[in-house]
Amino acid sequence: MADVETWDLLDEQGDPTGEVHRRGGPGWPPGRFHLMVATCVVRSDGLILLTRRAATKTFPFAWEIPGGSVLAGETGIQAAVREVREETGLVLDEGTLERVGRGVESASFLDVHVATVPGRPRLVLDPAEVDDAAWVTWADVDAHRAAGRMPAPWVGCFAALWPDLARKVAEAAG
């Protein structure tokens, strides 16, 4: 992760405004949003990658689908590929990502994707980002969500997309 992240700002419809904002900077403009991404990575055996947030991050030790903020100048797909690579060492082909939909939170949109990977890829976790990772079933993912073991803001963003995400994961798992 860069020392200072800068985000492109979007309006309420998700369209770029031409404005940028520094992460954590003062004066968040009213009616503006930034874009975040999450990628549900599905192995060829149908298992899904969950990562556990590092102790130093917000929502420490919460389990999540890999993701993060889209940086200024990036597309959502580019950010999804970058975030998965930074956090887990997995290199995804942009063409393997399928967008499920967009969730919304108070000042951010969350684009959710599904990507498939062959075999049993080796993970190389970034300890500043990820404390642990596991390949789990969809039932396990859903159990983490239902038990409150995922970051609350993301759970809210995922809520409307959850049925579509479950269907796309099942399709990806074959």
UniProtKB/TrEMBL annotation:
Its cofactor is Mg(2+). Residues 32-164 form the Nudix hydrolase domain. Residues 1-14 have a biased composition (Acidic residues). Residues 1-26 are annotated as: Disordered. GO terms for molecular function: hydrolase activity. Belongs to the Nudix hydrolase family. This is NUDIX hydrolase. It comes from Oerskovia turbata. The lineage of its organism: Bacteria, Bacillati, Actinomycetota, Actinomycetes, Micrococcales.
